[in-house]
Give the backbone structure.
Amino acid sequence: MKGRPLSLFSTSSSTAPPMAPLCAGVLLCVLCVWECVGASNPSHVDHGGVSLWSDRLLGEPSVMSLNDRLDPQWYQANNPESCPEGCFCPIQWPTALYCDQRALPSVPADLPGDTQYLFLQRNNISSLPSSVLAEAPALRWLIVDQNQLEGELLEGPALQNHTELRYLYANHNRLTAVPQGLPEGLRQLRLAYNRISSLGADAFQHLQHLTVLLLQGNRLQTVPSDSFTGLLALDLLDLGENRFKAVPAHLPPSLQQLYLSGNNFSELGEGSFAGLDRLKYLRLSRCGLRSPGVPRTAFNVSTLVELDLSYNRLAVTPTVPNSLQYLYLEANEIQEFKVSSFCQDKGPLSYSRMRILRLDGNKMSYSQLPVDWVYCLRVLHNIFI
């Protein structure tokens, strides 16, 4: 989670502030400072590569771990409620249970019944027993990243009765299949960097409220035509670093962010992204793409705002919609800049909305740009070449 700037204000007053609010303020400042510092350590904030933004108005925790942040005795002394062995129960988040980075072999028993936020990342947990999780029926977040969950041991019966569950993070485990029987209210499912090699026909059938699905770093090669049926609200889908040879078909039309980097696409079809009428952000870096395999209509998506094609083998600037604002083409083999790639029509009202264009690390220099490129890219803020 990204840290926010910390502002400190000094005020003068003849009356000393009450001690309790002062201590609480100091605590929050310390947590904020640690949060900002911790953001620089990927092992603490990976969570599948997409930051988790908590809703402070709902009382959601603003930090993912308390490990090495403050003296554990402080928490124990200031929280009269019982806390499972090996966990922290901070009084400022009374429904949060921090059991991360404790080398735990299993989920702690005797979970408090009002637990809503359960942090179990970076342990040695190999299964999620339904009998243990049943002790926390109000669970909203379950974070089990970087454990040893294997095969299909994360089974639906362990979670299907948790109707309040919204976030399930199981990145960096050894899962071979998508958990079945997940609760319908789930909003985010993060299964990045596991061993999933196939998706069932009804893998996500009942998850109509899911907005984020992370599956990068697995072993997927194909996607059945009905695997994504039911994902009516999906906004972000990451299928990067799998074993796809072509862009998967039958993707949810609701997508606004599609990440496919790190696959091995030798070419793109003319209709690879047809039907994705809401797509704004598309990542295709490190896919081995070559210019002959990228047809002019490959990116014919009028809603597209950002396109990442870096670290491929393109020799010519690809054709993109004039609505595009950010284009990343660094580290390719481009030696020809075509104005028609950005402006298909000519005229005073036909121009590209491009703001940032990266061409550094290619085989051309600024002097090789055609003289009329400034008329097409008239609102460009920065070009790197």
